[in-house]
Amino acid sequence: MTDLVIRTLTASDAHLFDALPDPLGAREAHRRTRFHPDWKRVALRDGEVVARGAWWGGPDDTEPVNINWFDVAEGDEEAGAELLRSAPRQVELEINLPGGWRDDPALLAAAETRFTAARAAGYELLVERFLYRWTPDRGLPDRPGRVTFRAEPDDTVFFDALRRIHSATLDAHALKAVEEGGLDRAAQEELDFFHWCPSPRAWWRTAHTPDGDLAGIHIPAHNPSGPTIAFIGVVPEHRGHGYAYDLLADCTHHLVAQGAEHISAATDRGNVPMAAGFAKAGFPVVRERVNFHPATGPADQVG
């Protein structure tokens, strides 16, 4: 094979990013996404684009949060790997996929090409996730009225709640944070994300049982792409009662009251209770996501 050229794009050659086919529908999925122009990179062989990646962050971020668009031409997985390996910023990789991608041979092959490139670059599987999108035609979910919700201005209340929630969690990102830095780190990462979202701090809510116990928290928010369910969490001692649905229903109502015409959300594929809550609340799965993180050691396989 001829030598590979890796190029960070500029305004004059930004069109190169569009030179690859889009079998996974990334362009439509990212039509609301705003990318920093100089955070897009391509790999070229004989002048032809054979891999591309877009590093993403919020409008005020000086460093990217993740890579959320990554494509590789079939048979050129090493080009995709080199695109990732040579990047100046090593961050988490999101591969976004249409729902039911495992059942379509063409989609499965395209996904596996990207997975192979990621593993060759030293990335390891972190988690698979469901992506949801609520729209008004789904109807607002009923609110059971079993818990009451309060605005709480004290961040330490949310920090303590997050420590309790993450002490027994199914969330892969939280588990990774706990493993690397303990419960304090996991709680602080969540708080930092909530504050990063460009939506009012006053929206955050605590949920309480009739006798006043804290049952959980929910965070209605806007991310740079629009309204989102930023967090739903039930403290361990009040699990088993389906309160995640109560929190999700109230969070949805809150965002709609603030003018939301659509609401995004996500949960880990293995978080069966939360996935059931989203289904009950009328949130359909619209896409799936496979998260990889830069690491060393044997790579896990996507199941």
UniProtKB/TrEMBL annotation:
Domain of life from the UniProt record: Bacteria
Which InterPro entries does the record match to this protein? Answer: Acyl_CoA_acyltransferase, GNAT_dom
Enumerate the Gene3D superfamilies for this protein: 3.40.630.30
Q: Which residues form the N-acetyltransferase domain?
A: 163-303
What SUPFAM superfamilies does UniProt report for this protein, alphabetically?
Acyl-CoA N-acyltransferases (Nat)
Q: Which CDD domains match?
A: NAT_SF
Q: What is this protein called?
A: GCN5 family acetyltransferase
